Amino acid sequence: MKRTDALYQSFVEILREELVPAMGCTEPIAIAYAAAQARAVLGKRPERVRIEVSGNIIKNVKSVVVPHTGSMHGIAAAAAAGIIAGREEKELEVLSEVTDEQIADMRAYLQEAAFDIRPIDSPFIFDIRITVYAAGDQASARIVGSHTNLVQLLHGTKRLIDRPCSETVSERRTDRSVLTVERIVDFAQSLCPEDVQEIFERQISYNMAIAEAGLAGSYGANVGKTLREAYGETVQNRARYMAAAASDARMSGCELPVIINSGSGNQGITASVPVVVYAQELGVSRETLYRALAVSNLSTIHIKAHIGTLSAYCGAVSAGCGAGAGITYLYGGGYEQIKHTLVNAMAITSGIICDGAKPSCAAKIATSVDAGLLGYHMYRCGNQFYAGDGIVKSGIEHTIEAVGSLAHNGMADTTQLKLVLDYEKLSALNLSIGEVNSAISTVLSGSYVNDYMDRGRVKQVWVMGNTGSRMQPEDILGWHVRNANGEMVPIGTFAKFEWSYGSPRLLPAVNIQGNPRAGVSSGQAMAAIEEIAKEVFPTGYEIAWNGVSYQEKAAGNQGPALFALSILVVFLCLAALYESWSVPIAVLLVVPCGVVGALGLTGTLGMSNDIYFQVGLLTTIGLVSKNAILIVEFAKEYMEQGKDAIHAAEEAVRVRLRPILMTSLAFGLGVLPLAMAHGAGAGAQNAIGVGVLGGMLAGTFLCIAFVPVFYVLVDRFLGGKKRHEKNQTQQA
Question: Any alpha helices (H) in 26-88, and if so which ranges?
């Protein structure tokens, strides 16, 4: 990997984005940051504060001490700290400049102000909404997806910030999908130290300092101190107890900042401190340490990107694996050694759950570091876990994907009853998915239709299926849906039930409807939706097309088979016409010339390979074959008159040149309006017209040049042999 490569620069940028300073546990700091933003907009001290947070935020805030608050902990304390002393411009260091007077003010404010804390039912794992009120005025701030991703900032009804909510926040971050273990190792080996010196020196300084503080003081359960006293000063134990001590301090109110990784201070500690300890033990150069930290941090980011933010899967596991990979590099290991270390480590610790931020995180960090070290030593001793051993798959990337799948869908599968719809029958019966969904929803759960007056009171009218007619799954098939023609169609005519197994974890569905704008084909619009969905939708969402889009998608997947079938039909027709298996080959060899022209012009104009283009491509195959037939047919006649193949082909081209040019010109001009169309439906017209026009231009001129050559070659290798055998038979 070269320094000038875009991939190299992406890796450096990922490190800059992820390895940033933060004080204390990042979730309460995120609450303080949101509260500081809302207070700044309000412009005065709030009298009332409403805090709405997702469940995973509650889990990670309730048990940790908020730094610079005098050992206070909890959601309200974090919000109060942000309101009273927060510096919103400092983001994750929002509480870095708190005074003793402000701490006392926080305690008084918690007693005098009204705090309303409630969980919210959000599609986002990471969601914080804070609204502050004072003297009839209000302001609110919302953070989604990551700790500083401020998506909404309101002052009354005025929207100061209003961005799309996204768990991935890809519009503000470098794409993490470029990461693979092989690329990470390649990057580390080609790393220029000056590109990362500031990043890693800050990580070394900050995280080692809080580790020393954890050993010097008394924090939490003192896991680091316990490990040192129980297991001594070996380098293996020193790596464990230093990382654990740093977490002890961080989880229990130490006011020193840490450099985080993947939004977590504990992960930043775990990915760096053990690597630094081993580098000191081995006496390696600073440059080698930087390269090892690159392997460790990027491996952590790579694994964590699959696990997701605030997962029920302990993030220290990914960082422990990363630390093992970094230490492997310090011992001279390359890609082979590092990938096996990672696989072994993930096989050992894939099962540690996250039950919130708290003092026991230090023990989980020690366990994860130990697993990373064991993973390396196992491979060094010729031992490893293989595909099929639990979570382990064939290949490092597949194993990382499996860990991500466990993190997202770790609940046991249960039996599920699925109603499978036949979309072709739906279309034939003039039914839409919306009508079917509405009918089933009405039958099973009821639907509101109207109000009526009963003794002076307004009451609602609900329609629901009779209990006796919806007791068994098969009962649903007997219900009817009204189609576009006003006819009642039984559900059983277009649907059936299937039993299967799947995760009980459900995500809300999002129904997207739209039409392509003028000049854009439906295929381009569908591709754009898929790209946007990858960036915007939370992890776990998938796209399922319905209606015309579903049919277009299904038809598009049939493209290769249709092309093959069309070529076969042309071949068989020509074989029957010429009573020869060899002559049609000369005709079909020119087909790629037309295809290249269609693809070339379409690609040059930036158009997509959609269903309409494929229709044009099929047309092109027939037209190009027609031009070749004109030449081959006459060449065959001249050969029957006694001319050799070369002179017969030359004469055929000379005789048919004008008809070929005239017919091609006429057809090209005929499709030109399609290629130049504007307005509604122009996308489909452009796709067909441009494809056919490009195929005709290339096919015509290349046909004139290459068909004679193909004819002579086919005749020489196939036809000549048959004539020789025929002559011998006649002579005998």
Answer: 26-42, 55-61, 75-85
